[in-house]
Amino acid sequence: MSKLIVKPEQVPGPEGTLLTVTPESAGWEYVGFEVVRLLEGQTLARETGGLEVCLVLLSGKADVSTRHEQWKGIGQRMSVFEKTPPFSVYVPNEDQYSIRALTALEIAVCTAPGEGNHKARLIGPDQVGVEIRGYGNIERQVHNILPEQEPADSLLVVEVFTPNGHWSSYPPHKHDRDALPEESLLEETYYFRVQPEQGFAIQRVYTDDRSLDETLVVKDGQAVLVPKGYHPVSAPPGYDVYYLNVMAGPNRIWKFNNDSEHAWIMTKPNV
């Protein structure tokens, strides 16, 4: 299996952890990512240390508190494939959070270096920007959970729904050079869910010089590391694909470049 694919554990760890990516395990500097699954009544409590955190309720309901704030009974969707925007909680570095599951709960723990510039806050569904991006079989639904226009120190968080037979993160684009204003350097994780769950997604990760050139078969519940290069995704016929993206780098701005060989695809044909 490719080193870019991170598989979930068969049985959750002591804190309910199913999948973990750290800067050390990924071989990069900024992005951390976890998926935690709790049963009703179970809790998770942690200090944030030097990291800011975005807790994304993928499915289920919970009480969430930080050192100075608390939110009761948040969460509404029971599956990501309901395609409604999620509840999320932003927690700054040098804080703490506690999560109590009110139902079966799957939560994404997205982390990156924090600088203490922002307070803990709830990001409700009405604060998530929803857009339809692309056209034809590159059309997909995007939920901007923590875009660059909203306050954070490092994190960018977005989720994407790719209908079966469609492509997303397309045309192929990259953000692996610290060369603003043309392009920003952002590490990225993709966390995949597939419906029906026996299906798969296809993701290609490649660079211009092809020093990295992999085509990945990604199963439900797996994550993909994108340290550099272009990274398009395909949802095979019959299988809808969801993914949650976490990005961070030296500058909190998303400036990308499309693969010049395929950029023409963004010119909608006259019909």
Automatic annotation (TrEMBL):
Keywords: Isomerase. Its EC number is 5.3.1.30. InterPro entries: Deoxy-glucuronate_isom_IolB, KduI/IolB_isomerase, RmlC-like_jellyroll, RmlC_Cupin_sf. It comes from the Bacteria. This is 5-deoxy-glucuronate isomerase. It is an enzyme of class 5 (isomerase). One of its GO terms (molecular function) is 5-deoxy-D-glucuronate isomerase activity. PANTHER family: 5-DEOXY-GLUCURONATE ISOMERASE (PTHR39193). The keyword Isomerase applies.
